[in-house]
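Before going further, learn to read the protein records used in this course. A complete example follows; check for yourself that the lines match position by position.
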Amino acid sequence: MCETFRRDGWEVVSYDNMTKYELNRTGFHTDEVREYNARILQDMGVKIVKADIRIREQLLDYTSGCQFIAHTAAQPAMTISWEDPELDFATNVLGTFNVLVSARKHQIPIASCSSVHVYGPWINDTLKEEETRFTRVPVDISEDDQIMNGGRNGLISPLHASKASAEHYVKTFADMYGINAATFRFTGIYGPRQFGGEDHGWAANFCIRNVMRWPITIFGNGKQLRDILYAGDAAAAFLAYQRNPVPGTYNIGGGQKHMISLLECIELINKLSGHRSEVKFGPKRTGDLSYFVCNIERVRNTLNWQPMILPEEGVGNLLSWVRENVHLFCSSIRNTKDA
């Protein structure tokens, strides 16, 4: 995000508390890893502010004078939301509320990062769990489909609730207070400089484990399917909104051309790397999405945005980055339970 706006000529402030709770599980919690992206951004001329969106006074100060807010700060992991729902609520709901208060006070357009998790872990009634890409039954889900639906295949988690609650506040501030605000429901984002693990960033985690010759654990049968989205394409959606700020809720995903199952992703990584990963299987996790493919017609028609990087190219870029930065993972604590 910061890189995209910086290269478009903007002065950029990165506002981040740099805690990265999810890194504690991957083992990639060395100081070098925590500061890795910040150092790259500083070299690009991005101002790094180490601060917390849960503290409103700081946020109000630093957003003064800004012309656009790209709100991506979040607790992103479903597993962490089970174990620490207060952290999940404070970050995703209270934090988003504080960002919206800042946008309102300073009259700044804002695009807020949500997730397809708001739809809940349901599977369309026309599908069976084993029917994903293997039987080529694509059903894309639109913004008008039901949200917070546990269905017959899963339960709603605190992460589902916090993401949906944040969306309601975005719409409320747009409707009641007239701020220019949008919600982006992102599907699985992946790309270089992502330290993925069991809790968040599964495509990156698979790449890291393939290069490091560590085993991969899949929770479930591996046929879970997503329309994954390259990080550069995700950032471009925010730039598209900044240029043409039409308020609303948008699915930001890869669509049918970018759908891939967990097992297919591993096979693609094996092919590109020339090394075959060792794969283990564990029980399916409560709340996990078994199937999700975005309908992206609304964002394509309204903001003139669509994904450009197909999985083979994107995964190849991610693998290249991991190979070039093996030292980041060699110094980390190996956790063979990550997937």
In short: DSSP finds 13 helices and 13 strands in the chain. The chain has one domain: 2-330.
